[in-house]
């Protein structure tokens, strides 16, 4: 576990210091960004092999923000739109990514509950975005440091490749502080 914690910590530092808007016209910045996202997706694949097999990928991650995608290909339901389980996958994993990279590997995120409200079928890849402001991150850390755990909610907007809002997720998370000993 120490190796994966070190890997998560180093990857978080690498990705947070990259420019999410870097393009090929800035080859070194673009390489730093794309290699960082590749590392994030590799860590997810090692931890949750189900995710990359189903076309999940993190598209952008920076302090307080994560954007992820699930492909339609391989995830269609009986009438050709995105399968409900794929919505859940793309809405659940980024919350863990966001908390791991913003709080650090000393905190373990645990999903306690999630609801999805489907608004319209998605006939394309689906994206989701989550954010946590710095004050919330600090409050979560303070509570987890004091009590061993902290609860928080994340709301995600899921949209298709055309920008249509197709679903909303609300996830209730708890983080646990590794090695916490009550005094």
Automatic annotation (TrEMBL):
UniProt name for this protein? DUF4442 domain-containing protein
Native organism is Marinobacter vulgaris
Recorded hits in InterPro entries, A to Z, give:
DUF4442, HotDog_dom_sf
What domain of life does the native source organism fall in?
A: Bacteria
């Amino acid at each position: 576990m120490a190796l994966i914690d070190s890997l998560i910590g180093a990857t978080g530092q690498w990705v947070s210091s990259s420019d999410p808007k870097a393009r090929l016209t800035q080859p070194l910045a673009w390489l730093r960004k794309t290699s960082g996202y590749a590392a994030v997706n590799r860590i997810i694949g090692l931890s949750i092999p189900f995710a990359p097999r189903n076309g999940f990928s993190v598209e952008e991650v920076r302090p307080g923000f994560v954007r992820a995608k699930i492909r339609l290909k391989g995830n269609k339901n009986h009438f050709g739109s995105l399968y409900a389980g794929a919505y859940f996958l793309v809405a659940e994993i980024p919350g863990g990514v966001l908390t791991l990279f913003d709080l650090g590997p000393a905190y373990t995120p645990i999903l306690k509950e999630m609801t999805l409200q489907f608004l319209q079928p998605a006939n394309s890849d689906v994206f989701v975005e989550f954010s946590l402001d710095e004050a919330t991150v600090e409050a979560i850390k303070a509570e987890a440091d004091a009590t061993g755990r902290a609860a928080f909610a994340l709301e995600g907007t899921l949209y298709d490749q055309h920008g249509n809002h197709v679903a909303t997720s609300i996830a209730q998370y708890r983080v646990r502080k590794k090695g916490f000993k009550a005094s």
